[in-house]
Design goal:
- By secondary structure, this protein is mainly α.
- The protein is 71% helix and 0% strand.
- It is built from 10 helices and no strands.
- The N and C termini lie far apart (67 Å).
- This is TetR/AcrR family transcriptional regulator.
- Pfam families: TetR_C_13, TetR_N.
Length: 194
């Protein structure tokens, strides 16, 4: 007869996500995970695999739950440019003083810590960034078609610039106690949409 798990794997994964998000991959040991999750090492391995597999599952969870309102914000009917501006300003506000300001963005943290050294993590980072870029691009294409953007503006290039800006806002916001820095950078970038 198989034993039933004495812990909730979903809750344990969420707890691991929070620990990895706060500490990063390298700084989180298996002992940290055992202590934080409150379950034994053997149970972690049996349920999630090794530390790397658990990290990737946590990153997948983060990506699944990422900014669920972003699609709605950028695809609402009517003028598209105000929605794009609102999203960039929201990212700046969250980066400068949001609930997870000190933790930053788990995807951005992964990119900075693991970069291209970890191809599996890099694929997840790229997928996340591609998702945001696609949403921005779609909104900017609509703005272009509706005459909100000057005819000489390239929606794809603008979407990429905004993606890079938004990720940079997260990095600077995590490390800086000056929220005006990210707010001013966002406002300057938004002038390129005029």
């Amino acid at each position: 007869m198989a034993r039933t798990k004495e812990f909730d794997p979903d809750a344990a994964l969420q707890s691991a996500l929070e620990l990895f998000w706060r500490q990063g991959y390298e700084a989180t040991s298996m002992a940290d995970l055992v202590s934080h999750l409150g379950i034994g090492r053997a149970s972690i391995y049996a349920t999630f695999g090794n530390k790397h597999a658990l990290y990737l599952k946590a990153l997948d969870r983060y990506n699944e739950n990422r900014d669920p309102g972003l699609l709605g914000e950028l695809s609402q009917p009517g003028p598209a440019l105000p929605a794009v501006r609102a999203v960039v300003r929201r990212f700046a506000a969250e980066a400068g003083s949001g609930e997870h300001r000190a933790d930053g963005c788990f995807v951005t943290n992964t990119a900075a810590e693991l970069g291209t050294r970890d191809p599996a993590a890099a694929r997840r980072v790229e997928a996340s960034w591609s998702h945001i870029e696609t949403l921005l691009h779609s909104a900017l294409v609509r703005a272009h078609a509706q005459g909100e953007l000057p005819a000489d503006r390239d929606p794809r290039a603008l979407a990429r610039m905004l993606l890079v800006l938004m990720q940079g806002l997260r990095v600077v916001g995590k490390a800086s106690d000056e929220p005006g820095r990210v707010r001013d950078a966002a406002e300057q970038a938004l002038r390129l949409l005029d």
